[in-house]
Design goal:
Helix content is about 40%, strand content about 15%. An 8-stranded mixed beta sheet has the order 1-2-4-3-5-6-7-8, with helices on both faces. Helix 1 runs antiparallel to helix 4. The chain is an alpha/beta fold. It is globular, with a radius of gyration of 30 Å.
Length: about 300
Amino acid sequence: MIPPLVLIIRTYVRKVNSKLCSNEVTLSNPLERSGFLPYNPYMAKNKKKHSKIFKVFIALLIALGVFELAAFGALAYYLSDYEHADADAEAAMKSGHGVQVHKAEDWIEFAPSSRSQTGTCSREGADQDKADTGIIFYPGGKVEYTAYAPLMRDFAEEGYFCAVVKMPFNLALFDKNAAKDVKEAHPEITNWIIGGHSLGGVVAANYAAISDFDGLFLLAAYPSTDLSDKDIKTASAYGDADGVLNMDEYEASKSNLPPDLTEYVIKGGNHSQFGSYGLQEGDGKATISAEDQREQTVRFVLDTLLTK
């Protein structure tokens, strides 16, 4: 099927070409016909030459249009091909067993059941400290954001409000400031931690560099901006079976991380099991369960960032 734009251009070219290649000498310029401009015999004798130039010009325009359509199609295919949340993730999105799940327009919230609908918490002491703390999470690149529901639920079961944000085209690069809306929606929370997995960790770190957070955690990720002067507790974890994380880049980026940095290597863990979407292409095979990897992750993050 020929695109409508190509049909229109082709029809127009045929009409113009028919006029230019005519053996009759016509004064096609309105100013020539009116007598305001003299008749140009050179143009009349070289109609075929100009016709060929015009054809080449239009052909180039058509070729450019076809190239743009092909590029758009390739981009659309790339963006539509992403990692989907698995059955475990779907199950984790149901309220119950001490966790309330609420799906907002651009994020999903996980909160301990003791937190009321107004966001306040009736507990006191250490539990009140938890009620004042919120965790915002950026998903990995080309991974459905709901794939991190099990991880967020694990944090919520420890007593913390969590939100995993939905990214345009499943790429955090398109909405670096997504955490801002979550913070504004919950003014009752005074201490905020931001984190992310893979590309989501990169973008979360970049946003933390220009915003105020009480903690930052990176899961199989590293920053692309300089946070070395940032006064923020930072936790970085990855699995020793990770086949996706570029370790050379990871090591080189350490100079960009805040001085208050704690690292943790999960033995037997890989790249994919921070989320719940199956084994990512190129990743190593984990020798521990996804539940074990998430449990170690949650404990490490909380002990590093929230222990006074």
